[in-house]
Specification:
With 223 residues, the chain is mainly alpha-helical. It has one domain: Lysozyme (Orthogonal Bundle). The chain is built from seven helices and six strands; from the N terminus they run E-E-E-E-E-H-H-H-H-E-H-H-H. The chain has a two-stranded antiparallel sheet with strand order 1-4. Helix 2 packs across helix 5, helix 3 packs across helix 7 and helix 5 crosses helix 6. The longest helix is centred in the C-terminal third of the chain and has 23 residues.
Length: 223
Amino acid sequence: MAKNVRKKITTVREHPMHVPVSEKNPTGITIRDRHFRRLKGTYLDAAEIESIFRNYDRKGIVYPTAGKLNKYKNADKYDEAIAVWTDYFNKKFNSAPPLDPDVVKALIASESGFRADPRENKKAFGITQITPSTLKIVQDPSGEAKDFIFNKVRQKDLKDPKIAIPMGIRWLFRKRATAMNQLKRAPNHEEVILEYKGLLKSDSDYKKAALKKYREAYAELKK
């Protein structure tokens, strides 16, 4: 069973630190400024992702609907990963209401058609179509997603669904928060998906097409 560790950042107080002796610092000692040290449980790296998924307590977790999206090859292949990581982040962020794993599955259908490395969009990568700018944000310990970040994930790693799926779900939680901020109310699932796609405030025809693909997949899952 995965250990539930609270996410937090602790402050390290000023302390002396040895440095090379120099003309500027003949004593070889300086005072290190107060800084932040990120504690375990507030980030994921590849090893932690693998460990959590392997040891996660699957009792009672909600799986996305299977056997519905037959137009997509491998549509049900990632159901366990979707279930585990949706449950994981629902608990990490104390989500109320919890994120529906069918939303995640329909999102993946609309983004990549469950292909681990689709090539149509040269500006996004992997099964959840993470962009380089998003990858940078979710790894920035002082950025907008600093409450829970990923560590040492390279762009080429996004071709691995084991990494791309938890990152996509974490970003979906962030996009729910930014959609709420824009709308000044709780967004519905379609609005969250549009914000994930960067289209919430767009009036383009592409917005309609992108939402249509998601909406069709979600409706199939809920039949």
